[in-house]
Specification:
By secondary structure, the protein is mostly helical. The protein has one domain. Helices cover 73% and strands 3% of the residues. A two-stranded antiparallel ribbon has the order 1-2. A hairpin with a 2-residue loop joins strand 1 and strand 2.
Length: 147
């Protein structure tokens, strides 16, 4: 059996890749097509480039939030699915950190155009990425109490 963490990391690189490595070609193709559609519709590559250049206001202006809000759920589902299909996450409620990360990143996306932390506007890339941390924490805490 292949390494579940390897599949997880490939899914972080691009949704669908972990499924391809698991031999789930149809599922991987569907996820890859959805990722491409959401990426194009939301202008996500332009948003990422602007964010990395520190042009947060430009990133906010370019982002199509209606489309971008689908990305976290697709992304975290692809990671969980590839990890699970490779034999990882066999314990009960192992999906919770992925689910809560998707929820929190979506909330981060919603507030990314105007929420400032310590006076800093993080925008549609950095704020959702920061929200992964509390999402994982909540998911692992709930998972621990659900046993």
């Amino acid at each position: 059996m292949a390494n579940p963490k390897e599949k997880l990391l490939w899914s972080i690189a691009l949704p669908g890749f972990g499924q391809y490595l698991n031999g789930k070609l149809f599922k991987g193709t569907v996820l890859l097509i959805l990722e491409f559609l959401i990426n194009v519709q939301s202008n996500f590559n332009e948003v990422i480039i602007s964010s990395f250049h520190g042009e947060i206001e430009k990133a906010i202006a370019k982002a199509d939030y209606q489309s971008l809000m689908f990305y976290p759920c697709l992304y975290f589902f692809a990671m969980w699915d590839a990890f699970k299909d490779a034999g990882g996450g066999n314990e009960k409620y192992s999906f919770l950190p992925f689910v809560f990360s998707a929820y929190f990143v979506t909330v981060g996306c919603i507030y990314s155009s105007n929420l400032r932390i310590f006076g800093i506007l993080f925008g549609p890339v950095w704020l959702p990425m920061l929200f992964v941390i509390p999402g994982l924490a909540v998911g692992f805490i709930i998972k621990k109490f659900m046993r």
